[in-house]
């Protein structure tokens, strides 16, 4: 693998996997020890992969709102600490155990929603919900043996404590171990500092527009929440010829970036003097064809649902709802409108994501990936990246390991 460039602006050497394969690696990881505690750079031991697992060297990672909610411990299933968060990244394979199609040095993106390729769900065209490796927010250990692969060792060398996994990936570490079903190989020429966006946000939003909604040219839609996922929906809708794209947010600073991504109309919720769905119905003479709820807010979900046109309106749920409360819908309101949720934009990650990546690299799908990258920082400044996300000042802050 001599001469293997990780990405255009990287000085990292290639990973050959020979010197470290089968051995415990000690590396830096951003460990969170409790809810809302600052990430702490720790030395952790990373065990070798078990059968059907791979160990990855992470080179680029970023923080998503799902990481933020887990860091806060917003619901019971997320209160597992100490933990290594992170699920949007790119890197190279260091080693694998009993894995076909992946070898040392391969460029890859880890994905939180896996695909085994063999189960009934993976063989079906109706779903990307793998029976064995679908996203499971309750899981904090590896599937093979119910154990972790990360261990913190105290300064005296005598205290060894398990550090738990997150969303099948745990990318806030220089090395991580993931199930092979949760790794997607990318072309050798693919720049990893752009490929990492396909790990979560861009794929989820674009897929929601293209695959979940199957949005048609000339359509109208409204997007609730103009973070990375919401703007990825807009990008997907723009590329599919949507006629009117309405963006809703409480932060008007996001509107300039939204316009860049194809949004035609903006609504600041704080400026509304009547229910938002009435504003949207008035604006569109009856409602939009599609609505996309990307905030994880129950009130926003209801407004998104009622914003669609009676008779054919479709609402796509993308936001992560941590509240235990049920949907704020009356059963009779479902007559004439539909609602559906999507995970990873309904992409089957291993069998369908490479096609999207290849089309992007060839210029056949003109995704504006650069528009999502607003900041870049060294991995050691992860707490600064978290702060930027909390303040709504960044879409994706790339962290270089």
From TrEMBL:
InterPro entries per UniProt: ADH-like_C (IPR013149), ADH-like_N (IPR013154), GroES-like_sf (IPR011032), NAD(P)-bd_dom_sf (IPR036291)
Alcohol dehydrogenase-like N-terminal domain span: 51-187
A Gene Ontology molecular function term of the record: S-(hydroxymethyl)glutathione dehydrogenase [NAD(P)+] activity
UniProt keywords, alphabetically: Metal-binding, NAD, Oxidoreductase, Zinc
Domain of life: Eukaryota
Reactions it catalyzes: a secondary alcohol + NAD(+) = a ketone + NADH + H(+); a primary alcohol + NAD(+) = an aldehyde + NADH + H(+)
BP GO annotations: formaldehyde catabolic process
Region of interest (Disordered), residue spans: 1-20
Cofactor(s) the record lists: Zn(2+)
GO cellular component, one term: cytosol
Alcohol dehydrogenase-like C-terminal domain mapped to chain residues: 229-356
Pfam families (alphabetical): ADH_N (PF08240), ADH_zinc_N (PF00107)
Family: Belongs to the zinc-containing alcohol dehydrogenase family. Class-III subfamily.
Subunit details: Homodimer.
Protein name: Alcohol dehydrogenase
Organism: Vanilla planifolia (Vanilla)
């Amino acid at each position: 693998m001599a001469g293997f460039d990780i990405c255009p602006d990287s000085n990292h050497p290639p990973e050959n996997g020979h010197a470290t394969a089968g051995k415990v690696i000690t590396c830096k990881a951003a460990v969170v020890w409790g809810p809302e505690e600052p990430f702490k750079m720790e030395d952790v031991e990373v065990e070798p992969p078990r059968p059907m697992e791979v160990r990855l060297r992470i080179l680029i990672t970023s923080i998503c709102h799902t990481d933020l909610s887990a860091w806060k411990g917003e619901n019971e299933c997320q209160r597992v600490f100490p933990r290594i968060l992170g699920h949007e990244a790119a890197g190279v394979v260091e080693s694998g155990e009993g894995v076909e199609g992946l070898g040392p040095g391969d460029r890859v993106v880890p994905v939180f929603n896996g695909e085994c390729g063999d189960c009934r769900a993976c063989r079906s065209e109706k779903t990307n919900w793998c029976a064995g490796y679908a996203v499971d927010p309750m899981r904090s250990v590896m599937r093979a043996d119910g154990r972790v692969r990360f261990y913190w060792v105290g300064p005296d060398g005598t205290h060894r404590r398990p550090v738990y996994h997150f969303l099948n990936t745990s990318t806030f570490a220089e090395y991580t171990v993931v199930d092979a079903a949760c790794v997607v190989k990318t072309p050798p020429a693919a720049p990893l500092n752009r490929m990492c966006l396909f790990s979560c946000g861009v794929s989820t939003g674009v897929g929601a527009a293209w695959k979940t909604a199957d949005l048609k040219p000339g359509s109208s839609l409204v997007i609730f929440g103009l973070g990375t996922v919401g703007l990825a929906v807009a990008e997907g809708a723009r590329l599919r010829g949507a006629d009117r794209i309405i963006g809703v947010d409480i932060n008007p600073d996001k509107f300039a970036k939204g316009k860049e991504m194809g949004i035609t109309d903006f609504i600041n919720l704080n400026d509304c003097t009547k229910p938002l769905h009435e504003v949207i119905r008035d604006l569109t003479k009856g409602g939009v064809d599609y609505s996309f709820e990307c905030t994880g807010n129950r009130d926003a979900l209801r407004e998104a649902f009622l914003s669609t046109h009676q008779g054919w309106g479709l609402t796509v749920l993308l936001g992560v709802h941590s509240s235990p409360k049920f949907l704020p819908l009356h059963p009779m309101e479902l007559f004439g409108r539909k609602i559906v949720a999507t995970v990873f934009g309904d992409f089957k990650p291993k069998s369908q994501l490479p096609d999207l990546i290849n089309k992007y690299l060839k210029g056949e799908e003109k995704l504006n990936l650069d528009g999502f990258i607003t900041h870049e920082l060294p991995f050691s400044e992860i707490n600064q990246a978290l702060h930027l996300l909390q303040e709504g000042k960044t879409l994706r802050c790339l962290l270089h390991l």
